[in-house]
Specification:
The protein is an alpha/beta fold and 242 residues long. Helix content is 28%, strand content 13%. The strands form two sheets. The chain has a four-stranded parallel sheet with strand order 2-1-3-4.
C-alpha cells in the first residue's frame, strides 16, 4: 500500500520463514491462506502490526537451519536479498538464521534482525550478571555461541524436550498439528520452573535472549517467572517501526 507520494501508508515487515508444509513465499504476490494453527506465530500475517511479505528459503527446514549447513545459510541470505528494499524491516523466523550473516556481503540496505543472537551483545551490555539464551535446541545454540567473546557469561537453556515442544519441529506442524498450545505452554513452564530453581541455568541471570521464535507469544508466561529484560527479534522489530 502506498500513499499519494509513493510512500507506504502502512509499514511492511519482511519475514524469512522456515520451509515447511504450510510455507508460502509471497514476495512476488503469491496468495497465502495461513492455517489456523499458525496464528500468533511469526509466519502468520496477523502477528505483525502492518503488511507482511514472507520469503521462504527452499529446503531450509528447522533441522537444516539448526545444523548450520553453509549451503542452507546461503539460501537464507538469498531470501533476505529478495526482501531487501521491498519492506521496512526484515525479521528472521528462526534463530539459527544467524549463520546467514556470513553470506550477506554487502549487508542489506533494509534494517535486518535475523536472529535473537543479533541481540545478544545488547543483552550482555544491559547487565553485569549472566545472560540466558532460550533456544529450541541447546546443542545447536551452544555450537553457535561457542566462540563468543563473552561465552563464559552465557547460559543456554533448551526447551525442546519438554511438554509438546518435540512435536512442533516437524514440517507438518501447522497443517497436521499433534501439539496443543496448552502442551507447549506447559513445557515452557516446566523448563522455567526447573531452571529458575537454585543452581538452575536461569538462577541469577540478568537478561533473557530468545532464540526460538515460538517463545515470544508466551511473554506473559516469562513475566510470571522473572522480571529481567527479555530480548527477541519480533518485539524489537515492531518497536523499531512503532
Amino acid at each position: 500500500m502506498t500513499g499519494s507520494h509513493g510512500r507506504r501508508s502502512r509499514v511492511t515487515y519482511g519475514v524469512v520463514v522456515l520451509d515447511a508444509d504450510h510455507s508460502v513465499d509471497t514476495v512476488d504476490g503469491a496468495p497465502f491462506d495461513p492455517p489456523d494453527g499458525l496464528r500468533d506465530f511469526y509466519g502468520h500475517p496477523d502477528t505483525w502490526p502492518g503488511d507482511v511479505l514472507f520469503a521462504v528459503p527452499a529446503g531450509v527446514t528447522a533441522g537444516v537451519a539448526a545444523s548450520g549447513d553453509e549451503d542452507a545459510m546461503r539460501v537464507v541470505a538469498d531470501a533476505v536479498r529478495r526482501l531487501d528494499g521491498r519492506c521496512d524491516v526484515i525479521v528472521g523466523g528462526c534463530g539459527f538464521f544467524s549463520g546467514a550473516w556470513a553470506h550477506l556481503d554487502p549487508a542489506p540496505r533494509t534494517p535486518t534482525l535475523l536472529s535473537g543472537f543479533d541481540l545478544l551483545d545488547d543483552a550482555l551490555r544491559a547487565t553485569a550478571a549472566p545472560v540466558a539464551v532460550l533456544s529450541f535446541s541447546d546443542g545447536p545454540a551452544q555450537r553457535v555461541l561457542a566462540g563468543h567473546p563473552a561465552a563464559d557469561r552465557i547460559r543456554v537453556v533448551g526447551i525442546s524436550p519438554a511438554g509438546d515442544w518435540p512435536l512442533i519441529g516437524r514440517p507438518d506442524w501447522a497443517t497436521a498439528p499433534a501439539w496443543t498450545r496448552e502442551g507447549v505452554e506447559a513445557g515452557l513452564r516446566e523448563v522455567l520452573a526447573r531452571e529458575l530453581a537454585p543452581h538452575g541455568l536461569l538462577d541469577g541471570v540478568g537478561a533473557l535472549v530468545v532464540e526460538c521464535t515460538i517463545v515470544p507469544q508466551f511473554r506473559a508466561v516469562l513475566r510470571e517467572f522473572t522480571p529481567v529484560p527479555v530480548f527477541d527479534v519480533g518485539t524489537t522489530a515492531v518497536a523499531l517501526l512503532a
